[in-house]
């Protein structure tokens, strides 16, 4: 078993069990963790996370967030500033990272290290 480290730009391509380079905006993504930290996998394509003031992405809570550097204001559905890692929270969409665990803004689930079996790295 190998660890595909998101911090090194890798994800576990579970279709053939190898670590593969993450991709960015406009690239195909078969798995949610295939997109780099600037994008979110929506409908099989990586879509750039919106900047502050732009409409929020429709995404899955805990899947990397809705906005590039902030949170989705649920009243206006626009991206705005949000609390960072370690800040108190009550709603996952209000955290900068898009993840609220046990009342604290946490690192995105997609940025965790993921285990993969097979070849270590394909570039």
Tell me what the structure shows.
This protein has one domain (about 1-115). The chain is about 0% helix and about 25% strand. It has strands spanning about 1-5, 10-15, 20, 40, 45-50, 70-75, 80, 100, 105, 115. The strands form five sheets. It has a two-stranded antiparallel sheet. A hairpin with a 4-residue loop joins strand 6 (about 70-75) and strand 7 (about 80).
Write the topology of this structure.
Blueprint: E1 2-4, E2 10-13, E3 18-21, E4 39-42, E5 45-48, E6 71-73, E7 78-80, E8 100-101, E9 104-105, E10 114-116
Antiparallel strand pairs: 1-10, 2-3, 4-5, 6-7, 8-9
Global outline: globular
* Rounded Rg: 15 Å
User: Separation of termini?
Assistant: 18 Å
Residue ranges: pLDDT <50 for 5 or more in a row? Answer: 59-64
Number of strands: 10
Strand content: 25-35%
**Helix-strand pattern, N to C?**
EEEEEEEEEE
Output the keywords:
123 residues; mainly beta; globular
What would a concise description of this structure say?
With 123 residues, the protein is mostly beta strands.
């Amino acid at each position: 078993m190998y660890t595909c480290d998101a911090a090194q730009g890798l994800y576990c391509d579970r279709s053939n069990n190898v670590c593969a380079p993450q991709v960015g905006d406009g690239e195909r993504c078969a798995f949610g963790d295939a997109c780099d930290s600037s994008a979110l996998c929506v409908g099989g394509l990586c879509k750039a996370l919106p900047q502050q003031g732009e409409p929020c992405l429709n995404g899955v809570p805990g899947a990397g967030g809705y906005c590039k550097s902030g949170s989705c204001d649920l009243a206006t559905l626009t991206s705005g500033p949000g609390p960072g890692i370690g800040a108190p929270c009550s709603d996952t969409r209000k955290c900068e990272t898009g993840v609220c665990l046990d009342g604290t803004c946490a690192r995105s689930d997609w940025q965790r290290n993921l285990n993969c079996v097979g070849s270590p790295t394909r570039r």
